[in-house]
Amino acid sequence: MGVASTVDGGTVGGERRRWWTLGAVSLGLFMIMLDNTVVNVALPSIERDLGMSLSQLEWVVTGYALTFAAFMLTGGNSPTSWAGGSCSSPVSPSSPQPRSRAVSRVAPTC
Description:
This protein has helices at about 10-50, 55-85, 100-105; strands at about 5, 10. Helices cover about 70% and strands about 5% of the residues. The chain starts with 5 loop residues before the first strand and ends with a helix. It is built from three helices and two strands; from the N terminus they run ββααα. Strand 1 and strand 2 (about 10) form a beta hairpin. The longest helix has about 40 residues, at about 10-50. A two-stranded antiparallel sheet has the order 1-2.
């Protein structure tokens, strides 16, 4: 059975990619949770050392979450911009012919 053979409608290589993708997403989620836990564990020390009030500590957590979200959005968009692709383009990068408008509305390229 070669790489191009099918197993339940998908390719063997596609199955491997799914597991690698699941592993990468799981690792990323674990790192996010671990990082958030570190910030929350550090809050009493931040309060004590910097003399912050409860509302200021809330801003620390909110600022951390907003900064992290901004970097996640930027990082998620970077491969598209580095490759020269565009989400609004009706032309798929893999095929030279334009996609129909109905397909573009249902299945965007990014």
